[in-house]
């Protein structure tokens, strides 16, 4: 199960232009698969092995698009549009796009942009007893991995091959910054110089590969159904007419007229959905 180098190169070009792709029912917040084991790099040097995975489009990782506005929902929302499912949130964005010359409308649109995360099934060296773990990667980290895969020294090799592939070192250092109270880590990825097997025996390797979860189905299972997504939009629109503390705005702000006009346009667009 090799990845498609040409598909990866195209993805690198798409990511370089800040592009994003578009994507049955709601599982009411319950995953379709067994609970995943998550991994985050520890400060220092970590050794991992990426496992062979195919998202169906030649990419070795699972891309998942989210809506991440706190006004829409407390937790990020898996975007139905990426699976080809009805998506009232995206429908609203499409309606608003026609009025994007309005600053207030444009600012509201930006809150509903789909933002991607990327998921890699891995084996962590020294933690083999935990089995397959899942690493949620940022676009910055993804770019580092793709740069290695598409490099002339490696593009003719399958670096994730269970028998003749390569481990990666992930070096994490404290950046000195924080986000939401947590330290931000700077990550650097390098390919080990020598190839090595994923596990000692063919049976062990086969068992590990067979245990890789279907990430597509897993995350699709968290997708809200059409009714739930529509209610999120209703709450989003209602919340836009209130201040940050949830009370009705009684003192006009400098951009109140623009906001009222934008809200009117939004409501009119939503009526057409």
Question: What this model shows, in words?
Answer:
It is a single chain. The protein has 273 residues and is of the alpha+beta class. It has one domain: Replication Fork Single-Stranded DNA Binding Protein. It is 32% helix and 20% strand. It is built from eight helices and eight strands, in the order αββββααββαββαααα. It has helices at 5-16, 88-97, 103-111, 139-149, 202-210, 215-220, 226-239, 256-271, and strands at residues 38-39, 44-50, 62-67, 77-78, 114-124, 133-137, 168-179, 182-191. Strands 1, 2, 3, 4, 5, 6, 7 and 8 form an eight-stranded mixed β-sheet that branches. α1 packs antiparallel against α4 (139-149) and α2 (88-97) crosses α8 (256-271). The longest helix has 16 residues, at 256-271. The chain is elongated, with a radius of gyration of 22 Å.
Helix content: 25-40%
Let me know the average pLDDT.
Answer: 81
- How many beta-strand runs? 8
CATH topology: Replication Fork Single-Stranded DNA Binding Protein
Shape: elongated
Largest sheet: 8 strands, mixed
Query: First CA to last CA: what distance?
Result: 42 Å
CATH arch. level architecture:
Alpha-Beta Complex
Look at the structure and give the CATH class.
Answer: Alpha Beta
Number of domains: 1
Topology as a string of helices (H) and strands (E): HEEEEHHEEHEEHHHH
- Low-confidence stretches at least 5 residues in length (pLDDT < 50)? 18-33, 241-263
């Amino acid at each position: 199960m090799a990845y498609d180098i040409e598909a990866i190169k195209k993805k690198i070009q798409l990511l370089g232009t800040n592009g994003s792709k578009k994507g049955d029912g709601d599982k009411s917040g319950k995953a379709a698969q067994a609970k995943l084991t998550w991994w985050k790099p520890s400060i220092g040097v970590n050794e991992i092995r990426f496992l062979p995975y195919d998202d169906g489009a030649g990419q070795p990782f699972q891309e998942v698009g989210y809506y991440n506005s706190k006004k829409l929902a407390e937790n990020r929302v898996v975007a139905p549009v990426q699976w080809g499912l009805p998506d009232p949130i995206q429908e609203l964005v499409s309606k608003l796009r026609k009025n994007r010359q309005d600053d207030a409308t444009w600012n509201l649109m930006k809150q509903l942009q789909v933002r991607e995360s990327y998921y890699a099934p891995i084996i962590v060296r020294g933690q083999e007893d935990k089995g397959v773990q899942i690493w949620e990667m940022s676009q910055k980290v993804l770019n580092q991995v793709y740069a290695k895969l598409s490099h002339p020294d490696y593009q003719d090799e399958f670096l994730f091959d269970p028998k003749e592939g390569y481990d990666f070192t992930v070096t994490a250092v404290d950046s000195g910054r924080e986000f939401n109270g947590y330290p931000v880590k700077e990550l650097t990825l390098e390919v080990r110089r020598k190839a090595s097997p994923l596990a000692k025996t063919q049976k062990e390797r086969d068992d590990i590969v067979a245990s890789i979860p279907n990430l597509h189905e897993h995350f699709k299972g968290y997708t809200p159904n059409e009714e739930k997504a529509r209610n999120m939009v209703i709450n989003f629109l209602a919340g836009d007419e209130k201040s940050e503390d949830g009370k009705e705005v009684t003192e006009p702000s400098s951009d109140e007229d623009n906001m009222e006009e934008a809200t009117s346009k939004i409501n009119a667009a939503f009526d057409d959905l």
